[in-house]
Amino acid sequence: MLPPKQKDVLDFINQYQSIHGHGPTLDEIAEKLKRAVPTIHQHIQALRAKGYLRLPSSNARGIGVFDPHEEVIEIPLLGFVSAGGGIENLETPEPIKVQRSMLSPMGQHYALVVRGTSMIEDGILPEDVVIIKYQNYADNGDAVVALVSVGGTQLATIKRFYNHGSKIELRPKNPELKTKTYNPGEIEIRGKFVGLLRNG
């Protein structure tokens, strides 16, 4: 059974989503329940950790509720991605089940397990499973899986992408880590983050 305050948050998100077709923002929840945004954020983190909520993708609107009756499909879990290391491939990709609403309407998708803390302010934590749409391009602000060529070695990471023309910026969402810039030829986009499964 959920604590009363967490249940209030979940009930409001459920009601809002049924009316509007998408979830509310943190500010909308805080205003409705007359609580501070940091307090609501703590409740959201707890509900997500328990599997009640899903993280919106970088261009999604609001916080969504998992629907147990929604269609579930399988995508391949390819391996692990760290904050600055390479993608560690599994010997054999493993299928994992995700709700269809977590995926983009078009295109193919895959999943990776996160190792590292480069995106913690976006709610992407170590051992979370990120859902990635295969694509080789990105818009400014997208969270992407990128391969970076450094000294003849390719490293993979998850960062926010910003194209400044002559330079590409990969920005972490962790105040303890620094933004890095690269020449366009040093970056290869391997996909766009579209969803997350909390592990644990």
Mean pLDDT: 82
Looking at this structure, what is the CATH superfamily of the largest domain? Umud Fragment, subunit A
How are helices and strands ordered from N to C?
HHHEEEEEEEEEEE
CATH class of the largest domain: Mainly Beta
| Strands, total number | 11
Shape: globular
The CATH topology label of the largest domain is Umud Fragment, subunit A
Structural class comes to alpha+beta
User: Which regions are unreliable across 5 or more consecutive residues at pLDDT < 50?
Assistant: 57-61
Q: Percent range for helical residues? A: 10-25%
- In CATH terms, what is the architecture of the largest domain? Ribbon
Strand content: 35-45%
Q: How many DSSP helices?
A: 3
Alpha carbon gap, first and last residue: 17 Å
Q: Write down the domain tally.
A: 2
For the report, how would you describe the main beta sheet?
9 strands, mixed
Rg over CA atoms, rounded to whole Å, is 17 Å
Query: In order across it, which strands form the biggest sheet?
Result: 4-3-5-6-11-7-8-9-10
Account of the 3D structure:
This protein is an alpha+beta fold. The chain has two domains: 4-65, Winged helix-like DNA-binding domain superfamily/Winged helix DNA-binding domain (Arc Repressor Mutant, subunit A), CATH 1.10.10; 72-197, Umud Fragment, subunit A (Ribbon), CATH 2.10.109. The chain has three helices and eleven strands. The protein has helices at 4-20, 26-33, 37-49, and strands at residues 53-54, 64-65, 72-82, 87-99, 109-115, 129-133, 143-150, 153-163, 168-171, 180-182, 187-197. The strands form two sheets. It has a nine-stranded mixed β-sheet, with no helix packed on it. A two-stranded antiparallel sheet has the order 1-2. β3 and β4 (87-99) form a beta hairpin. α1 (4-20) crosses α3 and α2 crosses α3 (37-49).
